Amino acid sequence: MAATDSMDNRADTSWGVKDRVTALVLGYLCYSTYLLQVGVVALLVKTAKTFQLSIAEVSWVLTIELLVGAVAFAWMTRLGDLYGKRRLMLIGLAVALLGAVICALAPTFAILLVGRALMGAQMPLLQMPAATARDTMPPARARRTIVITHVMTTWGVASGIAVGGLAGTANLGIGVFFWIAAGILVLGLLGVWAVVPESPTPEQGRFDLIGGVLLAIGLVALLLGLSSGGTAGWSAPRTVALLAGGVVALAAWWLVESRVAEPLVNTASLRERAVWGPNLATFLVAFGVYGAISAVAQFSQASPARVGYGFGFDGPHTALYAIPTALGALLAASPLRRLGGRIGYDVTLRIGAALCICAYLVFATGNASVIAFMIGVGIYAMGNLACYTSAQIVLLEQVGPERSGVTTGVLGITSAVGNSVGSAAVGAILAGSVNAATRSPEASGYTTAFAACAVAVAAALAVSVMYVRTTR
Length: 472
Fold this sequence. Notes:
The protein is mainly alpha-helical. It has helices spanning 2-12, 17-41, 44-51, 55-58, 60-83, 85-105, 109-119, 128-136, 139-169, 175-195, 209-231, 237-257, 267-270, 273-301, 304-307, 315-318, 322-343, 345-365, 370-396, 404-431, 443-467, and strands at 434-435, 440-441. It has 3 domains: 19-194, Growth Hormone, Chain: A; 208-263; 265-472, Up-down Bundle (Growth Hormone, Chain: A).
């Protein structure tokens, strides 16, 4: 491995201008996807006021994009393997652009939801740039590009917090945000069209429609069930029916995929340690990442005068978390690339998990200090970058270009489900600690939630030690 890494590192220094621009465009796709996704979160209150809805009702602007995005992960990444990833990225951006324009012009909430559903076509762009780099670049350049995409993903989160937080408090209609989104998507379209190469060896075959439909039904039912459990209760008939239906559909999908000649996802490969190990670690990391950061936002916005804890943050104050988020990713990027090449990305995955655990323990024990939370967010950003980047690189190096798209698509689904489970678990913990007098969770509920996220990532660390290995 040492000789290979040395050769890769020498090649890494010979990047031309086009190589760098291609890497930046691929990174921009990840940046813009998260900017638009996170930015909408900060607009929930404004959207609810615009259409005279409750927060529970308006949350569908997030839920519907997540549902469509989960299906798009499975379908578009596989179609990218068959017909070219560049082509599918252009289609995804065009559909999302149409959705943004519909949202900007939407006269009713129903039409806004149609636009948000179309914007879900952008979600696979969180994974397809890495697969494109894997297919079209030498190993060292591909790894460096993947690191760049994840740095820009984190910057997208930071920008979404800032832009959404400011837009949510400005005296402007919500349509302005979606016109900005349309401009961002146009830039992505032009960048992909101009500089991103097509994958050289798309796989020959047919799309497994039955498998695609079963996977879509299973994912939608499962994610809706997790969302319903947090609002209607875990024993509610609707929640039970959705979760059970999702499990049945996914079981049927697995049986079908095990028997067809050209499956959507090769289930035999999913049983290999080199594939399921990084996916399981990613699921556990995603559980902690999304659960913890949602708890940070809620804790920070709590009023200390009313509930006895929190910082009383409003939108612009919450946007301050963008600063340590961006700095953490920037500080971690170069050491991650250098360490990954020297000691292996399986080891940097463990380092990232350890950083995330430290961040969640800071949140659990330092919840009386804004400074402690800012430091914790910076550490979280470093760990988050290391975990997701390392897992993606390790996984991509186990497969050929003919399956790189769908492999990253499965990783994206794993991450999305982990996010949903983590959010639901944290929601259940906080709901179980609500004080009857203040109708808000007790401070101890937040401590428990952060501890649960730390335990999940500790499990990811254990999985990484036992089952994740860099190709040598």
